[in-house]
Design brief:
Phage holin family protein
């Protein structure tokens, strides 16, 4: 149940960020839910592989390259989901930063209800 709530909160964050950021667009709420699912799956499956493959660069940049990996995950979600569009990597980077920030706020609200 907690996973479904987290996915729905992520979908809400995607819709809010799509309304705020001009370089990001989502067609509707169903597309936002699909984007949330795809991002969760990509973070679970692809991100560890990318982190291992780019470990030397990540160490040299003191972890800042992980931001680029998150932007690549967002661009991959753009490629997989038809109703979601990100114009370039800079918008994907800003979107991933703001999405992480909003997720941390929304997920903390979930944890305080217990």
């Amino acid at each position: 149940m907690n996973t479904i709530l987290r996915l729905l909160l992520t979908a809400i964050a995607v819709v809010v960020l799509a309304k705020i950021l001009p370089g990001v667009a989502v067609e509707g709420y169903f597309s936002a839910i699909i984007v949330a699912i795809v991002i969760a799956l990509l973070r679970f499956i692809v991100k560890p592989i990318l982190v291992i493959l780019t470990l030397p660069v990540t160490i040299i940049t003191l972890g800042l390259f992980l931001l680029i990996i998150n932007a690549i995950i967002i661009l991959m979600a753009d490629w997989f989901v038809g109703g979601f569009a990100v114009s370039n990597i800079w918008w994907a980077l800003l979107f991933s930063l703001l999405l992480s920030f909003l997720q941390s706020i929304l997920f903390s609200l979930l944890d305080t209800e217990k």
